[in-house]
């Protein structure tokens, strides 16, 4: 058994690699609550002998590395990867972006573009030959939604949903239009510019918390894969750990 950990700014997701397949079992800990106590509670019923950590939160990664006393690999640009890196400063590439790119190339080859809808929305670009080229970072949907609520006196907090009309008939409806339809415009423009510069016919894969909602209105997104990051962590872990 191989434990896979996807540690983002908002939450930390756990899954198991069972003979090359992702388990149906999942656990989630809010990253702000991560501690030896919460790790013990979340993992107490699971058996595993190796761990791969993909983290964008250094302090959280340190907590987890100290917690496990079994073979553990932390994903980075120094890991053995199924892709190459053609990027001026590889150390600046987030581990999650490497995992996403690895999984995208293994599943779809190149050229490819991965859009990850998380706390930030990231675009990662893989060449036809499987080289990581770079990408784009923009505010995530939650950042835009929460900013309006926190910085204005009268705008409420909302849960993102598909607007029923492009003309909002209430404050909440108007915010939904801006946050969903408007956000699709941001994604579409970035994607068009990146795809034009990359050339060819890149496969576009979406993942992350708001991927299903936002990609529903974008025909240029070809695949929706909520497990893409875990698949990449799994593949990289298998290349860097010794499996018995």
The residue fraction in helices comes out at: 25-40%
In DSSP terms (H or I, runs of 4 or more residues), the helix count works out at: 7
Strand content bin: 25-35%
Task: Return the CATH architecture of the largest domain.
Answer: 2-Layer Sandwich
Domain tally: 2
Topology, number of strands: 11
Extract low-pLDDT stretches. Answer: none
Fill in the CATH topology of the largest domain: Nucleotidyltransferase, domain 5
- SSE sequence, one letter per element: EEEHEHEEHEEEHHEHEH
In the CATH scheme, the class of the largest domain would be Alpha Beta
What structural category arises from helix and sheet content? alpha/beta
Distance between the termini: 10 Å
Assign the CATH superfamily of the largest domain: ATPase, nucleotide binding domain
* Oligomer classification: single chain
Computed over alpha carbons, the radius of gyration is 19 Å
- Shape descriptor reads globular
Overall mean pLDDT: 93
User: How would a textbook summarize the main sheet?
Assistant: 6 strands, mixed
């Amino acid at each position: 058994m191989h434990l896979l950990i996807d540690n983002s700014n908002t939450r930390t997701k756990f899954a198991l690699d069972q003979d090359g397949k992702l388990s149906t079992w999942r656990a989630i800990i809010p990253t702000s609550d991560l501690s030896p106590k919460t790790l013990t509670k979340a993992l107490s019923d699971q058996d595993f002998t190796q761990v791969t950590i993909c983290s964008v939160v250094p302090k959280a990664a340190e907590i987890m590395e100290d917690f496990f006393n079994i073979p553990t690999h932390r994903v980075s640009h120094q890991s053995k990867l199924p892709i190459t890196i053609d990027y001026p400063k590889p150390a600046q590439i987030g581990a999650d972006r490497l995992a996403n790119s690895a999984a995208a190339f293994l599943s779809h080859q190149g050229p490819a573009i991965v859009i990850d809808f998380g706390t930030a929305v990231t675009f990662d670009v893989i060449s036809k030959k499987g080289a990581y080229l770079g990408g784009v970072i923009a505010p995530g949907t939650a950042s835009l939604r929460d900013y309006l609520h926190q910085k204005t006196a009268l705008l409420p907090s909302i849960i993102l949903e598909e607007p029923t009309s492009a003309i909002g008939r209430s404050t909440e409806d108007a915010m939904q239009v801006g946050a969903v339809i408007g956000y699709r415009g941001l994604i579409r423009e970035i994607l068009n510019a990146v795809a034009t510069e990359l050339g060819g016919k890149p496969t576009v894969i979406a993942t992350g918390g708001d991927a299903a909602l936002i990609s529903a209105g974008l025909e240029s997104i070809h695949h929706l894969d909520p497990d893409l990051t875990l698949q990449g962590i799994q593949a990289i872990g298998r290349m860097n750990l010794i499996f018995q």
